[in-house]
Amino acid sequence: MKGRVLVLGAAGRLGFVAAETFRDAGWQVKGLVRPGRAGAVPRKVEAVEAVTRDEAVAAAQGCGVVLNALNPVITEWRKNALSLAYAAIAAAEGSGATLLFPGSVWNHGRGMPPGIDESTPMQPTTRKGAMRVEIEQRIQEACDRGMRAIVLRAGDFFGGGTGSWFDLVIAKDMERRRLTYPGPLNVEHAWAYLPDYAATLVRLAERRESFGPCETFGFPGHAVTGREFIATIEAVTKSTFTMRTMSWWFLKTLGQFLKMGRELSELEYLWRVPHRISGDKLKAAIGEIPHTPLPDAIKASLRDIGYRL
Predict the structure, then answer these.
(1) How many helices (H) and strands (E) does the chain have?
(2) Class of the CATH-defined domain 4-157+193-220+275-290
(3) pTM above 0.85?
(4) What is the pLDDT of residues 95-139, one digit of tens each?
(5) 273 vs 270: CA distance, rounded Å
(6) Could you state, in order of their start, the residue ranges of all structural domains in the chain?
């Protein structure tokens, strides 16, 4: 079931990849961006410049699906995340579209179990986690009023460009033969290769009429330890790197003076608490889940950030 989709934030990393993926799957795609950013959307995607909630609602008219790919930078997350999410809900509800929302493991907090599925309690232990829970509550309330929504929960994105832990931390010093990992190397961490995630969004959108009014699915992605992740980088590059561990104590000290340090410090537990996401419900809904083998995903991600293999 194809049609028209509005991608909110089509110039961002998730929005750009998702807009391309919907387009290549045969959808008519509109991409909402900030004024002056129309040239940043993929080719053959209709760009819509907007800044207000009413403009987003107007852009969604005639669309069967609205994807909320709006994601403020980490230092502005507390200030803007809720208002952007509410604008996406308004756009979907006001047009009769199904809302697609990228869920996070932040909802589950430091006490999250090693295996996360759709029944795992949401017990956030950070302000950002609590805000994500609030967003999903507002989505549920809109569905109770008649909107339809699909939440696809995933771990940390990598691939599809820059702006992730992969390129900003782990691989940022590769040219100097160094890798930096944000936590202990023996802890399992949930990753989501962005092209696979976007392909899954398309599959869910095409089957949306077969789901209930408000459905949540887990995206399994790649759940690997830091040691496995680093070993894969070394294998695909045929290189050996000096390993460093990220200095969280420095970030926490910095956080006493700068917002960036405070905001990032909240996320340290994600690298110390082992977790993976179950894809059983997702597989039952769409069949085989898009999944690029980790070596291929890392190789493509390195090329995306300009590393020559």
Answers:
(1) 11, 14
(2) alpha beta
(3) yes
(4) 999 999 999 999 999 999 999 999 999 999 999 999 999 999 999
(5) 6
(6) 4-157+193-220+275-290
